[in-house]
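Consider the subject:
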Amino acid sequence: MAGSGSAKADTKAASGASCPKGWKAGWQKLADKVKVPVYCPTWMPAPLDGKIGGTWEDIYSIGRDKSFLVSFLYHESQTGDVHVNFRAYPGQTKIPRCREIEFVMGRSQTRHLPCFADPNGRTKIGSIDATFYTVNQDADQWHVLYAWRHDGTLYTVSQHVTAPLTYRQVRKDLNRVLRGLALVQPA
């Protein structure tokens, strides 16, 4: 992964769009809480939207270290899931380690492994130079994921690969999400 941009980077998406008006307040509030820029999506796979606090928000979590996970989920037992996660790790550019507990001969063993692994190419869009990961842990398990650095912070966006969506469709969707990210600066 290459570093990209600075705190004064443009606030428009690679497409030139800004954070949608109906979504901006939630992303601005998040940026103000974590005290780093955040990336607001300008497009999300149907039926999701990117409104924090809206119908499709699944998880909104901010850690003591200001790292965050904002997750959007559509779930229906007959048609499957559409699940997109946004994360950032302020002040951290290394891939975090995730805890995995496995049971061997009836005993639990804990090991730590990279949360994002198996890099599978890079994509550069505007100021974002992202690495694509296909083996991920924690809330990104069963997801494919883009990770990039901006101004001393690691950012990610991921989407769950599950029927009826194919790996190819999810990667196409994730590329479109990445192309449309708009940087929102903290106030």
